[in-house]
Design a protein that fits this description.
Layout (H helix, E strand, L loop, with lengths): L5 H9 L7 E6 L2 E7 L10 E5 L5 E5 L5 E6 L21 E6 L5 E5 L4 E5 L2 H7 L8 E6 L10 H16 L4 E5 L5 H11 E2 L5 E4 L12 H14 L5 E6 L7 E5 L3 E3 L8 E3 L6 E4 L2 E4 L14 E2 L7 E5 L7 H8 L4 E6 L10 H9 L4 E5 L12 H9 L2 E2 L5 H11 L6 H8 L28
Helix pairs in contact: 3-4, 4-9, 6-7
Length: about 450
């Protein structure tokens, strides 16, 4: 019923009416004829939407006295894709776009007002024609879930698809992903993809393609540009770099966070500067310490993750029973999102002691995000070090969480876990704290920074 529910859905079914049928509605002495349209699930549940012969859509409230009848059986509206003859251009790079759920790109059908996902190369080119000048596009679907339903098992599945495409000769891979958990997936891919020799770029959109302010097209153009033209051999995130439609930023996959629920420039590099930017189809790199791409190589997937890891946000007076509950549930590792330089209240000390005694590693990060934990400054931090808590340096809490999930199956004991967590494996730890990057606008960044 495409968004219809409750009494309206029952009313339509009783009259054997489906979306796409031509119907007649009689209400308060007026008669309306048109095609029953799909509607948003979040709209008022008591209305139907008709497309009139004039091309306008109207909403009609179905209440007492309304008569509804089907005039003609129809078909749900579909988006007609214009015929496109796509031939591979050997002068252009080959970029594989891996779908993980939702839409890779979308088109608005202005006849019906519907938004349709684009999955085939023809649909992608039709939705974002600029891509035809950038690359030969191949589309693969790794999975089909909303990003909030992403799992470690799906991270591995995505990683295997990426490796297959790169090992088959793709110049780069773009992963279309929902923005809510994009940072987690970027981190997981950063740790699991070994001997990466070409770019892997995660991209999404904050606003859907039916909105004038959509960021989908610019983000996708930027992502394909990085995947096809850059010499970056890392996992990165490419999204809007400002509220305007002027450029995208290239964020390292282990240093990026979604920082706003709805802004188009929601993704920010934390505790460092971005790798670079894409303006139009031109690349500008801000740093020189990224891994360089090569034309040959074989990507391997080391996808062993321990899913039983907890991320705990510390609050004043939090009792040890919280940690004890995690231990009873079988958690194998705990990442604390502590306060300030890496502190927790004394009320958590007993729980931490029990965790460490059981061989469950406890890693400290900070709620502050910018800066790094330093547990030697105050007595509470020093006490936590004595208890065996592992400092998380300047890692974001969610990055430390994903890293611990990956480290646990690869370490032979507690000491090795501690060493690996404090080792910079995929750019997740910066060697020094930069005093110039706190909320610094990227507009002033130069390639020499």
């Amino acid at each position: 019923m495409s968004g219809y529910r409750g009494k309206v859905q029952q009313f339509l079914r009783a009259a054997s009416i489906e979306v796409g049928d031509r119907v007649r509605v009689e209400k308060a002495g007026s008669v309306y004829e048109g095609v029953l349209m799909p509607r948003t699930e979040l709209g008022d549940p008591n209305h139907i939407v008709l497309k009139l012969a004039s091309g306008y859509n109207i909403g009609i409230k179905l209440d007492m006295g309304v008569k509804l009848a089907r005039i003609e059986k129809g078909q749900p509206p579909r988006l007609a894709i214009p015929p496109l003859e796509i031939k591979r251009d050997p002068s252009k790079p080959d970029v594989s776009i891996v779908g993980t759920g939702g839409t890779i790109a979308s088109r608005v059908d202005y006849r019906t007002g519907g938004v349709y996902p684009a999955f085939t190369p023809e649909e992608i080119y039709s939705a974002v024609p600029e891509l035809a000048e950038l690359a030969n596009i191949k589309v693969i679907e790794a999975c089909n879930v909303f990003s909030e339903h992403m799992t470690p098992e799906l991270w591995v599945k995505i990683g295997r698809v990426i490796a297959k495409e790169l090992n088959a000769g793709a110049s780069g891979v773009v992963v279309a992903h929902g923005t809510d958990t994009m940072g987690y997936t970027a981190a997981a891919l950063s740790f699991m993809l070994k001997d990466l020799h070409r770019p892997v770029v995660l991209v999404g959109s904050q606003r859907s393609s039916d909105r004038p302010s959509s960021d989908a097209a610019l983000n996708l153009i930027g992502a394909v540009t990085v995947a096809g033209k850059s010499d970056i051999a890392e996992v990165c995130v490419v999204m809007h770099g400002s509220p305007e439609d002027d450029f995208c930023l290239i964020h390292r996959g282990t240093k990026v966070r979604k920082c706003h629920t709805s802004r188009r420039d929601t993704f920010q590099t934390i505790n460092d500067i971005p790798i670079g930017m894409v303006r139009g189809t031109e690349l500008k790199l801000f740093r020189k310490d990224y891994k360089r791409a090569s034309s040959e190589g074989e990507v391997k997937v080391d996808g062993k993750f321990e899913p039983r890891v907890a991320l705990l946000k510390v609050t004043p007076g939090m009792p040890s029973s919280v940690i004890e509950g995690m231990l009873r549930a079988g958690d194998k590792g705990i990442v604390l999102e502590g306060t300030g330089l890496g502190h927790v209240p004394e009320s958590l000390f007993d729980g931490i002691k029990r965790a460490v005694k059981r061989g469950v590693p406890v890693v400290m990060t900070s709620q502050c995000l910018w800066g790094r934990v330093d547990m030697k400054v105050y007595s509470t931090g020093r006490d936590l070090l004595q208890l065996g808590v592992i400092p998380g340096e300047d890692m974001l809490p969610e990055i430390a969480y994903v890293k611990l999930m990956w480290v646990l199956p690869h370490a032979k004991g507690g000491e090795e876990v501690s060493n690996l967590m404090r080792m910079n494996l995929a750019g997740e730890i910066t060697p020094r704290t930069r005093p110039d990057i706190f909320l610094k606008p990227v507009f002033s960044l130069k390639a020499s920074d």
